[in-house]
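Predict structure. Chain length: 163.
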Amino acid sequence: MALGYLCDERAVKAAHTAGKGASITIELGGRNGPEGVIPYPGTFDVKELGDGLIRTTGPVSGNRDINLGPMALLQIKGVQIAVTTKRMQAHDQAPFRHLGVEPKEQRILALKSTVHFRGDFQAIAEDILVAIAPGGHLADSSKYPYKRLRRGLRLMPLGPASY
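Prediction complete.
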């Protein structure tokens, strides 16, 4: 199982300082979320390190050079976590590959993305489960406090019409 992409500059720095093959005890993530989101404490194995200089390959932003800053692939309890220094929604498989993870070989691939992931990941998925989680962009658009929607507008694909 793999998860991506978490943006946590402190965790990446700790991983790069310790080096590939080391174990680090840190609090991962939870630094940029809304109130109540907290880091996950644990001891993680540093499986891979990367410089974050990547050429994207997918249909959303393919064939584009990006810089996610230093990256690390951390593992805890069988879960591999792709961690970046700069924020990026999981809309391309290339950052996983940069860290040695082939997305289509994962039994479970958890992505931090509202919808853009579908462009490059939907074709390799047997099934897609959307989880509603706290954050700046809600996967369920009916939860936004809209005030002036036109009658009949759908807030989700195949969802009910408003009003």
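Summary: The two ends are 41 Å apart (CA to CA).
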